[in-house]
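DATA SHEET
Item: assembly model
Revision: 1
Owner: S.N.
Input lines:
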Amino acid sequence: MSAARWRTAMNSGAGRAAMRGQTAAVALPRPGEAAISFPNLARHIGARHVVVLALLLVFPWVASPFVTYQVGAQALALGLIALSLTFLGGFGGMISLAQMTVAGIAGYTLAIFGPVGASDAGVSLGWPWWLALAMAIVMATAAAAFIGWLSVRTEGIYTIMITLAVGVAFYYLCLQNYAVFNGFQGFQRVNPPQLFGINWRTPVPYYYLALFWALAGYFFVKYLLRTPFGIALQGIRDNPRRMNALGFNVTAHRIAAYAVAGVIAAVGGVLLVWYNGLITPGSVGTSWMINILIIAVLGGMRHPIGAFLGAIVFVLLQTFAIDLIDRERYNLVIGVVFLAIVLFSPDGLLGWWAPIRSKLTRNSSVQSTPTGGNR
Amino acid sequence: MRRTFVKTLVGAAVVAVFSSIAFAQSGKAVKIGLLATLEGPFAAGGADGMRGAELAIKERGGVVAGRKIELIKASSDAKPDVAVNATRKLVEQDKVDIMVGPLSGGEGIAVKEYSKTQPGVTFINGSSGAQATTLVNPSPNFFRFNTEGAQWMFGLGKAALDKGYKRVMVIAEDYAFPYSQVQGFMAEYCRLGGKVPVKAWVPLGGKDYSSVIARVPKDVDALVVVLGGADAVNFLNQYEAAGGDKPMVGGSITVSQDVLNYKGKRRDSLVGTIAGSPIADAYDGADFKKFVAAYQKAYPVSSGAYPSPSLFALVYYINMKAALDGLEAVKGDLSDGHKKYRQALSTMTLKTPTGNVKLDQNRQAIGSTFITEVVKDSKGNLYNRVLRKVDGIDQMLGMKPSEFKMGSRDEPNCP
């Protein structure tokens, strides 16, 4: 668990005992906030939450439809999938490359069972959209739990390898199976249903749909991290043997974490298949599996918001890097930016935020809240 | 803490400003978007496709019907979702009038579906060759001036029978493009009385062909091998090692230079291999020679180009030329939702280096293909000689629309 050690070292003050540092790494930022109950929910919503939310809501009215859809909405959908990896990796200590596979399973299930205009071969069973949607989430969650069950007994690089193997196996299954997955061509015209007379594929409605689920996923993860389950999971990340000795079932907690991450990835996968309007083996190939990891690492894995920050940077680069440099070389820009972020801030974009924040907090002399051992 | 919020606000404002760039559309220049794969498995082909398209613009000196041509390029990696994202950027962000691309089959179907949501823009294919693009749910603003995988092989069935191959076995990769290719061959071959008792579908990039070779029946006269470059060489090696001696009939990308450079003992048995292709280096038509000369002049080998234009360069050239010739025909008039322009595209006869092309009612090209044969020159090198040029091949392969079915593993069938 080198990642956990590293984080511990980052968090603990100089000369602090290792034990002290581990407690600090658990997401219990302020005393008296152990769990959220509705009466004190308001205390958790600071002004910055309101500002960010307002900006997110106003965004589609300021930006062009293209930016709303391709940058805003795509970043939210990809961010949601990356969020599932942040949850697993940052708080469970398990780096899974198969999160895109889980998202792809949700997308494929939706396409296979749902009402797809796929007269161009492939079996679409034409179930009503809500049933297919429920099926997609259930199947993807089951698949995620299965992947978790397969890989929980491994650690570090071996987890990466085994999840990579699962992902690649699924890619080839989709590529070569024509009876169910329609092979190379996949499924076209997998569109969201027309609900309340709104075409949910148009930029603004789709943006709000993605925003709703991104916020839901974000707050769900934030909430979960403060529950006994979340605390235990972080304990397991930091020292599985000690947690085992304390009577926690480490394997069960880890599998449950995979399943929970699976739900989040499944919702992201459904959003992504609706965003693209299609799903093909390329959507679950290794490049996308690794892209999700890049997004999570880019943003920073210490806080759920990192996944979305990473997704925004990733999508902006993917879309606009080609305008900055010669067309054959634009991947260089993407690579250099990624490298720069990871090189100068091992904790992703969030790593830059922490010093800025502490500086600002120090400047405002009125605020001198004790922040526990955390930063 | 307040300043934190201000900082957040500023950050978000920067994002908002970033988003509202563009919208600057000059009245004069005509904007053309060009999409090819500059990453992934077809990166080399995509770069050559771009050369072909640029050549068509260079020929006109960068001006069409008095309007300057502004070319905006984008890249994908042969994945449909990436191609649609890149196309969406060109159409919605860069506001192109005409869109040329993409390169590969799966991308073509996805971009065609996207084109339906953008009725104000005219889409012209790059080099994608899936049958379904124009056969299933065609889009009213998607035009394809190149022939596709099945059309490329039409005429080869008769050539095989002329060589005396009455029964053949098919060995092809298991995805849409080889299905089309095999159909193009079999449509004519079966109709003229040929028999195909066995079809073996192998995975793309497969290394071991021993099980396939074991299935080759004794009584077939030839093998129809529709495999890509490296796969074809692997197959040849193993077939030779297993003592096979049947002659070969190749697909459009089978008898490439890698195969001709094959050094095995069976090298001489490659002589006489026939294949179907939309381009033939040795074709001596005047227009084609002019095209090759122009390509070689504009893109010397030292700049990274091929010694002779590839299939992608030719097909992108043809499609870009169609876009420009259409603009010339309507004097650059794109008013009324491109109404006149699309009318002109649908009805014009396009002059291409390999012969005239017209569109059918699905806006798909009716064009020519070449039947080539491997021969040995005086120095002992193998090259493809043009046996025959077949003109006017439509997408129905000479069948009635009612009896036509798209190629698949089991279609067509004549055991």
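QC remark: Chain B has 14 helices and 15 strands.
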